[in-house]
Amino acid sequence: MRKAGSTLVFTGGGTAGHVLPVEPLIQRFADLGWQNHFIGSKSGLEARLLDSMPVVCHEITCGKLRRYFSLENFVDALRVPVGVIEAWAILRRLRPRLVFSKGGYVSFPVVVAAWLLGIPVIVHESDRSAGLANRMAFPFAQLVCTSFKGSVINARARVEWTGMPLRRSLFEGDAEAGRRLIEVPPSKRVVVVVGGSLGSATLNKAVREVPFELTQRAHVVHVCGAGQVDRSFDHVSGYKQFEYLKASWGDVLAAADLVVSRAGATMLSELMALRIPSVLVPLGRAASRGEQIENARYAEQAGAARVLLEEALTGESLMREVVAMLENLDHWKSRLQDARPPDAAAHIERLILQLASANIS
């Protein structure tokens, strides 16, 4: 079953959350001698995120899938079939044993092209309920994997709870290296604030309303998003800003006592796996289908987090939640002892090998 020379194609994109979870799978199959390929968008986001991985990246035309009316929907509707044709040409040339889709609008043309070529497809759903791209992809899949136990998935395909694949580097984080990077005194607690791979202007604003109050309680590491660092706060002692952290992210999380975050599935899975208490500020329904609210409530029920809804978010309300968590950290950490998710990468590796076995002899 572990024959060298087999080819595996991954797809997904639009945000880092649709790309980074495939890293541990890419590494596992590279270690098995497989040839890994990733089909992403022409924006190059996916290729940049995977630039250090043993994978060959390809780009296709893709149209964003929206749940609301927009004139751009008409243009994007034309891009989708173009993307299917381009993906079909790539897959026909590569002849992979299987396509693994992590979701996002980039993935749908690839899944359809794989179906047309008779290539098995596994779709992984990050959130408690499926996004539009994955709902459209389910009819073309043989298997659907979920991050959360009890996820609501309406698919004819077999559905299996696997958890979220997580990068090895997260579990190899060095707290001392993280503390040196963020320049925190030895005895001070660390609060990490992160708004997802693209940042969150709403969360950034709330943090910057109370920087002095927060830094009296802890050293604050603020991961703001590209172009969202505000240099007018550089003078605030105990407040450190970054646009984005990747190579050192595991070290920073190892140093963290508390994380304030959006409730994207990847971030949430990382926090629960590392047993880090969190204050979750899910993206509201005005700007989403509410999947982050569902994710956040799941973590809350598991005893892993407190939830602060976006409509109630202010500097003052954020400060209250952070203080409440910091004053009871031992309590929250003890609750997290039973919250560790399964080893998703190992589970999904077995499923890929099983489903691809008919083509490996």
Structure description:
With 361 residues, the protein is an alpha/beta fold. Helix content is 39%, strand content 16%. The chain is built from 15 helices and 13 strands. The protein has helices at 23-31, 45-49, 72-94, 107-116, 132-137, 168-171, 175-182, 201-209, 211-217, 249-255, 265-274, 291-301, 315-326, 329-335, 344-356, and strands at 7-11, 35-41, 56-60, 98-101, 121-125, 143-146, 158-161, 190-194, 219-223, 239-242, 258-261, 278-280, 305-307. The strands form two sheets. Strands 3-2-1-4-5-6-7 form a seven-stranded parallel β-sheet, sandwiched between helices. A six-stranded parallel β-sheet has the order 10-9-8-11-12-13, sandwiched between helices. Strand 5 (121-125), helix 5 (132-137) and strand 6 (143-146) form a beta-alpha-beta unit. Helix 1 (23-31) crosses helix 15 (344-356), helix 3 (72-94) packs across helix 4 and helix 7 (175-182) crosses helix 10. The longest helix has 23 residues, at 72-94. The N and C termini lie close together (7 Å). The relative contact order is 0.12.
Notable traits:
361 residues, alpha/beta, seven-stranded parallel sheet, 15 helices, 39% helix
Question: What's this entry about, in short?
Answer:
The protein has 361 residues and is of the alpha/beta class.
Question: Helices, strands, pairings?
Answer:
Blueprint: E1 7-11, H1 23-31, E2 35-41, H2 45-49, E3 56-60, H3 72-94, E4 98-101, H4 107-116, E5 121-125, H5 132-137, E6 143-146, E7 158-161, H6 168-171, H7 175-182, E8 190-194, H8 201-209, H9 211-217, E9 219-223, E10 239-242, H10 249-255, E11 258-261, H11 265-274, E12 278-280, H12 291-301, E13 305-307, H13 315-326, H14 329-335, H15 344-356
Parallel strand pairs: 1-2, 1-4, 2-3, 4-5, 5-6, 6-7, 8-9, 8-11, 9-10, 11-12, 12-13
